[in-house]
């Protein structure tokens, strides 16, 4: 990944955006930061944590909607411009990485918003670094996934993620070819400038003139098992003590019904954690809940309410 900002990224992140490199175990974690519109030493901080094969480029709409807040969004270990950081991966590692990010920026406490796997990271962060989190906003993630019966551990990625996992083993001639793959994905029928930036940022050169997605396969495989039965996640949920909103998409990763959390799974986790404030975000899928205006416009009030606490 070149250090020069891609034109498609520059078009969506705005003037408040700066990129940073933060020391963590094994190297530097790449972080995007949107500073408050007006300089304010008392401005609140929102920590935004992306999904399992995503990057911090999932979050420009959140930052645009919160001009009075600082929004800090890392590329998790093994993804984006943090892809060369070594394993082990897993929720503990990611939680400790983002805690180091908050320390780097002098943030004592943040509202933590996590999408998909980022919600799992947020839950474990709140357990391992309790004082750094004020509230949690868990966006279509955070509760253990219940895969179809009979799915073997080595098949989890395909069973849960489908084409999002398949693409990590593919190469592409150029950015246009990669965009086309995403345009054919049923979850991205509504294409925006943000979708272009998200896809462009995700490509890295292979060294032979081609490109590949930035997420490392070994990071995906290590992380996805923890979303089902990871000890750190189960411990963190058993100890859940922060105010937490759980926002759910009505359609899944392929724009399908049932969604990632079908009704029976929702009822199971709501019964297990009655303190969750649960809401469904209308007319979105697992991706567009954060990547379309109509999704983010329904997420933002929950983040503002958390900031108000």
From TrEMBL:
InterPro entries: AB_hydrolase_1 (IPR000073), AB_hydrolase_fold (IPR029058), AB_hydrolase_sf (IPR050266). Gene3D superfamilies: alpha/beta hydrolase. It comes from the Bacteria. GO terms for molecular function: hydrolase activity. Keywords: Hydrolase. Residues 44-149 form the AB hydrolase-1 domain. The keyword Hydrolase applies. This is Alpha/beta hydrolase. The lineage of its organism: Bacteria, Bacillati, Actinomycetota, Actinomycetes, Micrococcales.
